[in-house]
Amino acid sequence: MPDLSHGDDAAAVNSLRSAVMRLSRRLKHQRVDESLSPTEMSVLGTLARCGHATPGELARKEHVQPPSMTRIVALLEAKGLVRLEPHPEDRRQKVVTQTETAEAMLEESRRKRNVWLAGLAEHLDEDEWARLRAAAPVLEKLAHL
Q1: Are the beta carbons of 70 and 76 closer than 8 angstroms?
Q2: Distance linking the first and last C-alpha atoms of the chain
Q3: I need a labelling partner for 61 at 20 to 30 A (CA). Which of 10, 45, 49, 70 fits?
Q4: In what order do the strands lie in the sheet with 52-53?
Q5: 62 CB contacts (<8 Å, ≥6 apart)?
């Protein structure tokens, strides 16, 4: 467990934060569809991972307020990227599912970003690349805590 009072741990946490934020900003510029906001893309990514969800579940997963998620879902529906269907057990709720158009767009976005990131990784030596591959699952875990 990192101890921020320890100089090496504090420096490592600071370096990790800075690197992740900078890399994230640069990755965001590799979007396929510039008409979607980063939040809209994130919601589509969440739907790709979980299959479908209610607007309330999406709001919790995306760390936004339910009214905000309702607006985001409405925008995505108007763009033909999600569809709302009746909840199978609770008629008062709707289930949000991404469309085939959204799936194709996300796949192209992932492909473009992966190519860009692989291009950056070409500048690493074998040892750096091995350490980055080993760190990837840990970074994935941090991203979903």
Answers
A1: no
A2: 15
A3: 10
A4: 52-53, 94-98, 82-86
A5: 39, 42, 43, 46, 69
The greatest distance separating any two alpha carbons of the chain, rounded to the nearest whole angstrom, comes to: 56
| Nearest CA-CA partner of 102 in 26, 24, 46 | 46
**CA atoms of 59 and 68, how far apart (whole Å):** 8
- Give the C-alpha separation, 137 to 131, whole Å: 11
pTM: 0.73
Give me the sign of the Cα torsion angle 27, 33, 39, 41: negative
Distance, in Å, from the CA atom of 48 to the CA atom of 58, rounded to the nearest integer, reads: 12
User: Per-residue confidence of the chain (145 residues) as pLDDT tens digits?
Assistant: 777 777 788 888 889 999 999 998 888 877 767 778 888 989 999 999 998 999 999 999 999 999 999 999 999 999 999 999 988 888 888 999 999 999 999 999 889 999 999 999 999 999 999 999 999 999 999 987 8
Tell me phi and psi for residue 125, to 5 degrees: -80, 175
